[in-house]
Amino acid sequence: MAMIAIAAASCGREPTDPSRTSLTGFWRSFDVDLYIHNIEMEIHENEPGVVIGKWSAIGKVDNSCPVGKFCKDSSIIQGRNEVAQVVLHLFGAGDFVGERTSDTQLKGIIRSQEQNFHVTFTRF
């Protein structure tokens, strides 16, 4: 009987299980993703592991901002908050794949037009 209890206790969660920590909040990165920078995300996680929200940034994802003009771009976010990783599809800007390194930090890459851009988001 003791062996069964030890075996059950040693089983960990699957890497793709929903994380027990929520990403809900406002996140910001001052890093660059192709033609945009100063990326802000408002994320909601109404059920464990399912992420929705919106993003905005300075610049235009299609590089259509005229030289010397101030432009902003934005769209929606859909993604997953898993035990092993965070995957966020920033519509128009690319896919973020990374990890939560602390309660207030996400580190990873945004894949845009077949290029990887290293980004760090901080929760505010």
User: What's the CATH C level?
Assistant: Mainly Beta
Strand line-up of the largest beta sheet: 1-2-3-4-5-6-7-8
Termini distance?
A: 48 Å
Percentage of residues in strands: over 45%
- Helix count equals 1
How many DSSP-defined strands? Answer: 8
Described by the principal axes of the CA atoms, the overall outline is elongated
Question: What is the percent of helical residues?
Answer: under 10%
Q: Could you state the CATH homologous superfamily?
A: Calycin beta-barrel core domain
Here the CATH topology equals: Lipocalin
Structural class: mainly beta
Mean pLDDT, all residues: 92
Radius of gyration from CA coordinates:
17 Å
What is the architecture at the second tier of CATH? Beta Barrel
The biggest beta sheet is recorded as:
8 strands, antiparallel, barrel
Helix and strand string, N-terminal first?
A: HEEEEEEEE
Poorly predicted spans: 1-8
Keywords:
single chain, 124 residues, mainly beta, Lipocalin, eight-stranded antiparallel barrel, 1 helix, 8 strands, 7% helix, disordered N terminus
3D architecture notes:
A hairpin with a 2-residue loop joins strand 6 (94-102) and strand 7. The protein has an eight-stranded antiparallel beta barrel with strand order 1-2-3-4-5-6-7-8. It is elongated and about 55 Å long. It is built from one helix and eight strands. By secondary structure, the protein is mostly beta strands. It starts with a helix and ends with a strand. Helices cover 7% and strands 58% of the residues.
